[in-house]
Amino acid sequence: MKVKHYIALAALTLPLAANAQSINFETENEGYTKLGVFDTWEKSPFRTGALEGNVKVIANPYKEKDALAGDTNMSDHVLAFQRSRWGSNTFGVRVTLKDTIKLSQTPQYVHVKMRKPKSGRVMCFALGSRQDRPWQSKDVVQVEATCKSKVYTDKWFDAVFALTGANGVNVHSLVFAPDVESTHDLNEDFVTYIDDIEVNGSALTRIEYSVYPINFDKTQKLSRNDRYTQGITLNSGDGSQTLSVAQKEDKLVYQNLLASSLKAKAGEKLSASVNYKGTWMNAYLYLDRNNDGKFDTSLNADGTPATNSDVLSYSHYKGKNSVGESKKDGASATTALPNFTLPSDLAPGFYRLRFKVDWNEIDAGGNSSDGNSITGNGGAVIDTRLNVHGDKVNISRGQSAAGTNGEVLKADGSTLDGTQIEFGKAYTIKFKPGDGFKLSRFTIRHGYNLAGNSSVNETPQYIDVTVPAYMVKDNLYTIPAEYVDGDVMVTPEYVTDDAGAKGDYALNFPKDLKITRTDRALNSLSFNTTTQSTAQKFTPTDKLVYQDFSNRSVYVKDGDVITTNVNYTPNKNAYMHVYLYVDLDNNGTFSTAVNADGTPAWNGEMLSYLYYNNKNSRGENANNDAKNGLFEATNSIPQFSLPQGLPKGKYRARLKIDWDDIDPAGHYNNPDKKNQINENGGYVVDFNFEVVDEYPMAKLDVRTTNGSIVGANNTGMPESILKGQDIAVQAVGLDENYSATSIVVRHGENLDGEQTVDGKKQWSEYTATLVDGKYTVPAENVDGDVRITANFEDNGSEYKLVFGEEFDGENGSQPDSKYWSRSSRENPTWKRFCAQTEAGQKETGWIEDGKLVLRCLKNTHDGEKDGNGNKQQMISGSIESSNKVKFTYGKVEGRLMTIGHSGNFPAFWMMPNNSVYGGWPYSGEIDIWEQIDAQTQTHHTIHTKWANSTKDGAECMGQGNNPAKTGNSTATLGEYHVFGLEWTEDLLTWYLDGKQVFSYARKTDLTDENKIKAQWPFDQPFYLILNQSVGNGGWAAAPDLNFTYETKFDWVRVYQTDKHATGANSATKASALDYYVTPGNIRLVAAQATKVQIFDLQGRVVFADMVQGNKDLHVNKGIYLVNGSKVLVP
After folding, report:
1. Of residues 590, 604, 596, 534, the one with CA closest to residue 565
2. How far apart are CA 684 and CA 548, in angstroms?
């Protein structure tokens, strides 16, 4: 066995040195007694004596400096070690110490500079003996430590090892194994060099090659869930700027926010903060003021940052903060950063800014001590950029590789050379192509160092944005304010103007091509945008592949995120894919250009697609659901936006359903004749996206008698609707004996004026037949305002209109005083702000466009005072019909709309005209409708002596659940709903948009006269109240004084039977059963004692008994028969 010698053998026994904690090889015997080799493998030839190791102190062959790390090793001498291929993977160089290292449970860190040509793990073995075992060999391995720092090849690095162990162990030698990987592929020996061995209490590496080093792996995650950083904030002359930190979600200790930046001016006094969830931590803020890739953390003796320090602020370190204040004991546990002044000598530019949450450690890389590491303590290192800017920035024209061929000018046509513009403000430029040329695209480079590298020490300096020519209108383009975040360079690309003929949105198939499959169908296509909640919908009317809606638009605003909803059968495993194109340059074709990652290219017009080449338009690898055609999942078809700043106007769009083919013309007549679009059940749908400043809304006017027009499935109706959208309506009569067979639809402009003005038709009108009481106004008829009129004919109803208030007075007028009075101001919450002066009443209630508008808003009238003579905070509108319109029994309906907001508290309700049974609540109250704050839940309630608790009156009996005094339903805010109440001698029934939602019955099992009247005081005349009030923080929230609360009442109608209208009280409603279904429950409501039988589908009796009043039955989900009617319980 022969060993190739890389270094000459030398004497291994050298004179002693003075300090065992620091060893170098500049002078002989500097801290060691002996040098050699060691192998932990007992059968190693170096243990058996078959081979000798080769170790020698030599002249340093690699004196190296590094731009980031500085002087990595400028020693004159180093220790060279021949790593033999005959040794095991733990074979290494042995340094016998002059002074032993005493182990303890507190870590001690061994540092050794090392240089080696081969990658691989590095370990340190501490050889020694126990003090209580004097016979023990000093060659026993007491500690095995793997290098904690990063290992490099062909350059010096600082290998760091943590030594811990039981007390009473002495370490006599350190062995450094430079290659603990498998030796099977080690074919020849190599030399490793070591130098400058130190033992201390710091785990920080002495040589750092990376910029802005951190003392943990960047993929390191928090080890605890109770501490995390949620955001960072900088307050400057640019305002309060906050960046969110997602540490709670991703758990990463290192947070890279370099894509974002914060802004400030040199010399400004600033404040900063961290939003940290946790305790006993500190905050630190650093700025690399000379952009050298590292943070200087030097401090003065009093704790303040030194003159050239990169420390801006810190909350605590060694009992001080950055302004030199004492922070000891409990005061040290703070993340509050002291204010600071940004150095005034900073030039405009992007600088690395680091926020750190840590404990008592100024090192910008984080505390790495075992007891208080930044990772173990739930800390964070957050890197972002500081944009140090002035008031002005430079704008210039860049030179394209394609040559000049045109100019970039100011908007007024003057030269751009030498121009300075305002920082952070949008700026308009003008393009002027040369003769025979046109603009193809241009690049906006914005930031700093525009002629240099885009990144300095991995800190981004500028960004290039490519803008297609279609973003330019009339040769003008406005550079967005967010691009003016530094200097700006605009580089145009002009090309020869030989575009040729415009395309015609080609198809690969005839427009009358029919779909041959019957199991696949596009039921509808709709789009939602972030600023318009209404789904803009298209519904195919035939089985043709091509669906032409090119005369209709989907309206979007600049910057809207657009969600595509495809209702396709089947909606899972459809084995079809969705592709969406927009002709952004209006050239009659759709560009399908995509980047390598699948995202749309700068000139691409396929803005969203579900699957192609195993990708989707977000650049994600498509999963099996997408590949197989999953349309039903939320956002399974990727959301997209039209380019920000796209000029206003129409842009032809196309949605295609096809199989794995991006050709916008459709997969048809291909050579393979497979997966033809018609045979696969595919579609091509043409329409427009129209970019608008404001959505074009159509005013919706509904006029009815003896019934109402509501939305489909008994829902509300908006006051206005987006033009070009279907309007699905449903006719609901006052009862089953009032019906409408048709409606009249008038649509267009100036609906109350002449149909034709100066030869131009203003509006159209037609009669539409209702089918099962329903009709959909087609989108093409929603071309302006829409009026729907319906007359419900009386087919033998007992109910006749006795009072109808349509609020059809002149705009600005007050409600008719023959029927209505203003409510007085009194102490109850709803009355406390009721306006009393003429001016206040005009501001809080008036008639407009056939509606009563009631408001509650901040008071500006000195005459509106509270009971103590102080000026009211707010004034509110309320009208009532007391002593004017009062009635006993009948049916009441009102059509109204409220706007949700915290503190909102409107109502449509009834009170007794005379308190026959005593003050409130003894004589009763009926709330037809209440709805508070911004909630969609509605409340339908009674108040009586029987139902209310003693907090409302000493004699109240607290029987609010016997029967239940309140029912709830749901009504969308900002839409008109019809709320109704039917009142008979023994039953109150509430309705919402024609659907019964709650009942309250008179109890017949009471014998005590006091209790009978307490439970049912509803045999006296009641009057109506319509009001807009605000809460006080009890039930409804306290009001927002800066908000105007508003409720509109379209109409209020009262119907009675003939007998009730003449004052007769002998008529009774026929015994009937109401039932209400909620999950796991059936509520039975009967005015008179009624026999009820409930069976399940197996015929088993679930319930059989007499019911009077309310009764709740708890049942399992399923289908039941209630007195013969089928009921589904969810």
Report:
1. 534
2. 8
